[in-house]
Write a structure and sequence with these properties.
elongated; Rossmann fold; Helicase, Ruva Protein, domain 3; alpha/beta; 32 strands; single chain; 5-stranded parallel beta sheet; 46% helix; 7-stranded mixed beta sheet
Length: 828
Amino acid sequence: MSLKKAPKHSELKVEDLKWTCDPQVFDFESTEKLEPIEGIVGQERAIKALRVGVELKSPGYNIFVAGLSGTGKLTTIKKMLESIVPNNSAELYDYAYVNNFKDEDRPLLLQFPAGMARKFKRDLNRAIRFLQERIPQVLSNEPFVSRKKQLLSEYTKKQRAIMLGFEDKLRKDNFTLGEVKMGEMVRPEILAVIDNQPFFVTQLQDLVNEQKLTQDQAQEIFNKYTSYQEELQQVFKDSLKLTQDFQEKIIQLETEAVRVIVNVTIDDLRKKYKFKKVKYYLDQVAENIILNLDVFKGQKPIREETESGIIVDYLKEYEVNIILDNSHTKETPVIIETSPTYTNLFGTIERISDGHGGWYADFTRIKAGSLLRANGGFLVINALDAFSEPGVWKSLKRVLLYGKLEIQDLANLYQFAPSILKPEPIQIETKVILIGNNYIYSILSAYEDDFNKIFKIKADFDYEMTKTDKALNEYARVIKKLIETEKILEFDKSAIAKVIEYGARYAGEKNKLTTRFAYIADLVREASFWARDNGDKMVTDYHVVQAYEASKERHGLYESKLSQMIHDGTLLIDTEGERVGTVNALVVYHSGSYSFGKPSRITASVSLGSGNIINVEREAGLSGSTHNKGVLIISGYFREKFGKHIPLSFTASLAFEQGYGFIDGDSASITEICALLSAISGIPIKQSIAITGSVNQKGEIQPIGGVNEKIEGFFDVCKRKGLNGNHGVIIPLQNVKDLMLKDEVINAVKEGKFHIYPVSEVSEAIEILTGIKAGKVLANGRHEANTVFGLVEKELIAMKKRLKSTPTKKSDSNQETSSTKSRRKKKR
């Protein structure tokens, strides 16, 4: 049988393998005289979204900034806010908590224009100190002293009249009035007078025993004593009421004397601070001072230690706890919270130990967080940090929904240490900017209630930009900005051109440049390092290449280990000869931010069956969902290609040989199809050619990722085993625009030692791999004879016939059933 030879397929030319940046496009020789760029490059869409979110003041227009790391999200936000903030007319305020004299568990919030809270605190402190000095003077001067003496004289007369009348009655019956001390209290007591000496009634029995009294005399005295007790109680009550009346009159007199100076002093503050809430608080202060004159009179110490060891400051209740002072803030606040813990964001209420296992707090222990410090401005938070910190997202969502901040301790939030202190909520107008990636955004948008209500603006940062002459010059100016900022060596234009080439490689497409400037910045820094290390004064393209290769070497330990294993034959990869059902696939490995390509052998085995294709990786639990989908598409391709006229009478299995890790992606679909075609037809495949590509059910080859790494990975293996001019790779046609290959591969292609074939159909790929014509469909619906597809079709027909001649599953089942019955009979 003579198989039909495949036509010669076109290869990629050298100019297709890489875009080279011509240094002559730049109108400068080096970056020495180049102006640095001040803005952000390649993020016009994101900047427009940010501007809308920043300038719209309506509720809910908070911003979620999404994009890959290294695209300059934080830098852009900083620069944009710097440019917008000076034009922002948001009014700033000071916030302070003060004691609520009517309910000390609910401190009052006072709001002042920026800078006024500090003045109010100073003025109130001065007023309290003034009253401390003046109130004792008022109470020690005329006419207060005369009026107090008069009241005291009247009280003394009435008190004496009550007591003298009662004593006269007692004296007639040989009794007198004495006093008994009970602890710190003194109470009046009736004493019996015997032989001109006073005795307690409890001593009468002693006098009887001493025969100074008879039992009858003692009993008579006791009876009279008992009769006077009720009258004594009434006298005591009258005296006590008189004392209370006197004290009330003294307090009233003091209040009248002091009220004028208190009202005048506090009224000066009312006139100066004409805010409704402040006036309400000052009214409470004035009333409380009058009700607590003991502290101001000097009769009670300002500070004293309680029995539990707590220091009590009786003037503390007049303090002003300023939690936000904007006296020195001239522009709209922009807070970038790098550690968004609950306390740092929302503030807290500090608790103090009483030394006996208990804790207490008051309004002076309320502390503000960055959410309040950014009020009227902007707060920037990393989204992932906000979710990883306990309690942060739940509270942040509540604040943004209702526009109110309630400061609490985190322990109180989870009710681990409940506190009755509940400060008055603060009205919040902070614009929150969350920085994250698209995955976090999609999860929040889909599953988090109210997320779309409070984050209406999404600023999506692109990871690439279109390559234009303007973009090239902007890239150069970005590099100049880094040179100035970090004081590194200047770059000549050849170095700039080489950096931009790597920017295109990072982007994965010739017509694009990466906007993940973190990678570019690292390359620039390291190129400067190697230039200094070489003793050069300026960075050239040589140093850029040196930096890139050094970076690859640092991260390439795993890659070198795999290369050594392939070279030693531990990993079985053939780069010569032909094999049936065996193809070299191109696989990308990832190690952190570093990725590299290496070939992997894929094999297919075929037997009679019903058209099932077994994914060995899936059965072993090593296959991802995308790879599983790719294998199912392969089944669809075979049904589409051959199953319309011929039953697929085979069962096949596909395996990544010596693959012990997790595999995902559909870039091996074309490889697996070719392996199956070879296994069914019996046509061997060239091992000198590797292949990659995704396939749809119609046999059209689709683009894949990591094409540069895959090509270079197979090239390195072939080079190590010895290039002979037969080696090459097959890639999807759509990936040609992504090629940014290293110069070593390009030189090998130029010399004819390595070949790169672009394909768009399965038929093209199988022809290159086998050298046999794929075969077209004839008018009778069958494929050409002596072609790959013709042989596959022929074998499928033969397999169908063989399958019909084999015992059916039903007879097998009957035999098994009979056998089972036979065994059961023997057991019986």
